[in-house]
Amino acid sequence: MGSTWRKAKVVLGLNLCVYVPRTMDEKDDDESPEVLRCGDGDDETLPLLLYNFSRHEIVGIVTEVGSDVTKFRVGDKAAVRCMVGGCDGCDDCKNGLESYCRDTIFTYGITVYSPLKYYGLDRPSLSVGVVGLGGLGHLAVKFLKAFGVKVTVISTSPRKEKEAREGLGADAFLVSRDSEQMKAAIGTMDGIIDTVSAVHPLQPLIDLLKNHGKLVMVGAPEKPLELQVFPLLVGRKLVGGSATGGMQETQEMIDFAAEHSITADTELIPMSYINTAIERLLKGDVKYRFVIDIANTMEA
Amino acid sequence: MGSTWRKAKVVLGLNLCVYVPRTMDEKDDDESPEVLRCGDGDDETLPLLLYNFSRHEIVGIVTEVGSDVTKFRVGDKAAVRCMVGGCDGCDDCKNGLESYCRDTIFTYGITVYSPLKYYGLDRPSLSVGVVGLGGLGHLAVKFLKAFGVKVTVISTSPRKEKEAREGLGADAFLVSRDSEQMKAAIGTMDGIIDTVSAVHPLQPLIDLLKNHGKLVMVGAPEKPLELQVFPLLVGRKLVGGSATGGMQETQEMIDFAAEHSITADTELIPMSYINTAIERLLKGDVKYRFVIDIANTMEA
Predict the structure, then answer these.
(1) What are the φ and ψ backbone dihedral angles of B289, each rounded to 5 degrees?
(2) What residues of A are in contact with residue B220 (Cβ under 8 Å)?
(3) Is the CB of B211 less than 8 angstroms away from the CB of A100?
(4) CB burial readout A250-278, b (16+ within 10 A) else e
(5) Which of A28, A184, B118, B121 is most buried (CB neighbours < 10 A)?
(6) Which of A4, A14, A21 is nearest to A50 (CA)?
(7) Is B228 on the interface with A (CB under 8 A)?
(8) In which pathway does it act (chains A, B) (predicted)?
């Protein structure tokens, strides 16, 4: 089976999320409705490589289209989210929430946009905190500012204050290790989006919420966290999760991002730089995402 | 200062929640807009005693009304929720959510009704679990059935199945210690209301939820519970809390209960039985709530 994606100029990136059907990799090329594809079979090692390298999507220029293609022409920009294995039959798939079906891959823009919409944290009068200023966090700040929300970045590192305020336009900054600062902010936030994947205490964040406030987790600590129930009761607060979003909402997110000139801050690297990039990722030394220029630095 | 509540025939109970203003106990009797009152001062020891005995409300027949009383006449049934100390000024008080202001007392009917409404678990097409079949749980089943929801009672004790199904009309029953039963029910529920105050694992309950499901805590375990974040993410699930409700919603709850003939199952006891009742409560030996007949068994 041919691998049509190899004919496309492909760049790993964040900002374009125009979809091709998830079912493509189950069909012959001639029947493929779109030319870009995300494979998970033996013949399609590049997407697998990319998937294994980092949660990602592939962005490129369409260089060839099949006879059934209606959404794309040669020369269009398109993105493949490697969303394979959606069943198309369950309630989630039918409701455009196929990302909650099995075998999905997380992406960044939609991973913060979707929960802000779902949990109602997208209204101008609100005050919302963003925990962690990384790939997810910096996009959360940008979307929240575009919604007109008052944004407070919450970080362990005081060194990030300048970047948060001046670089991203955050309205306030809290050092989570500064108990005085945290105490002064108790009960001030309508919601918090927590992007941190390291194990960390939830209660100081729950304390920052007003009554009826929502702590939304998008980072996934490996070990269970401690949850005190009583503070949830007396403040009618909640701790919720969210993971990426469906095709429909991702298209909405992209349209919103285009309208408000929201882009991810990225650093373009050649394929040969991957090992160094991984080392830098582990040290948190990236603002805020690496993009691999595959088309110009790797031959299929 | 006189204690007008002593003039009312007072019975501790659950089912009537018609309110008198919280601010009454700050006024002279002559200025009191209603005759029933809940005091927390030195002169008003009975409400304090009742409060200390159990979370409660006082229900009685109005025997006297002040000149400003507009809602009650002598002979009316009325209930005082001992909701003292609401500030009347914060957003919650202004929005009829004064129960989230300081110094409130939990009650049972509204404690299950309010979260079912707030978290959207009151729609006929839904499937909702109720954990724990006690004072809160049995009312949750009754309200859910009145909403038209499919109800599954989840209990550690298989002995409660008959009562759950035949006594309360539950559609299904799960023994939480039976791993086969629990496994078979994974991903089947839109929501769960958890009334258990003992420390217990949350993950088996979260597993029972469908994607986008909601686990609502109304019991308050003393120690923190373990919360696994990843399952919340991949299923966009949430763990929320709720505590009682405001006056407006409690009136709505009472009206709904009256319309659907929902009453709490109670056992009427004389004041002299209190110590035995407490012993029985500790053993879980009550269906489902003790009511103290103060008017006939205790002199003020």
Answers:
(1) -155, 140
(2) 229-230, 233
(3) yes
(4) bbbbbebbeeeebebbbeebeeebbeebe
(5) B121
(6) A14
(7) yes
(8) Aromatic compound metabolism; phenylpropanoid biosynthesis
* Range with the poorest average pLDDT among A171-180, B87-96, B196-205: B87-96
What are the φ and ψ backbone dihedral angles of B192, each rounded to 5 degrees?
-140, 135
Q: What distance in Å separates the CA atoms of residue A64 and residue A34, rounded to the nearest whole number?
A: 8
What integer pLDDT is reported at residue B290 of this predicted model? 74
Alpha-helical runs (H) found in B101-156: 109-118, 135-147
Contact at CB, B233 and A239, closer than 8 angstroms: no
The angle subtended at Cα A109 by Cα A107 and Cα A110, nearest 5°, is 75
Q: Shortest CB distance from A233 goes to which of B97, B226, B242?
A: B242
Mean pLDDT of A172-176: 97
Between positions 87 and 126 of B, the ones with CB within 8 A of A are: 92, 97, 100, 115, 118
B243–A contact, CB cutoff 8 A: yes
pLDDT at A188: 98
d(CA B17, CA A197): 46
How close is the nearest chain B Cα to the Cα of A220, in Å? Answer: 5
The sign of the dihedral angle between the CA atoms of A101, A107, A110, A115 is positive
Q: Are B203 and B228 in contact, with CB atoms under 8 Å apart?
A: yes
Q: Which residues of A touch B241 (CB under 8 A)?
A: 229-238
Cβ atoms within 10 Å, residue A124: 8
CA atoms of A79 and A61, how far apart (whole Å) = 9
pLDDT tens profile B104-123: 333 677 889 999 999 999 99
A15 burial class (0-12, 13-18, 19+ CB within 10 angstroms)? buried
Up-side HSE of residue B12: CA atoms within 13 Å toward CB?
Answer: 29
SS3 A272: helix
- Find out whether A242 and A111 touch, Cβ atoms under 8 Å: yes
The interface predicted TM-score of the complex, written ipTM, equals: 0.73
Radius of gyration of chain B (CA): 20
Domains of chain B: 4-106+245-297 (3.90.180.10), 109-241 (3.40.50.720)
pLDDT of A81 higher than 60? no
Name the nearest CA neighbour of A137 among A108, A115, A117, A114.
A108
Query: Is the confidence at residue A151, as pLDDT, over 90?
Result: yes
Confidence band (pLDDT; 50, 70, 90) for B271? confident
What single letter denotes the amino acid at residue B104?
T
Q: What does the pLDDT average to over A46-75?
A: 52
- Specify the higher pLDDT residue, B264 or B214: B214
Task: With beta carbons less than 8 A apart as the criterion, state whether B17 and B81 touch.
Answer: yes
Chains A and B form CB pairs within 8 A to the count of 108
Name beta bridge partners: A266: A289
Residue B262: the pLDDT is 83
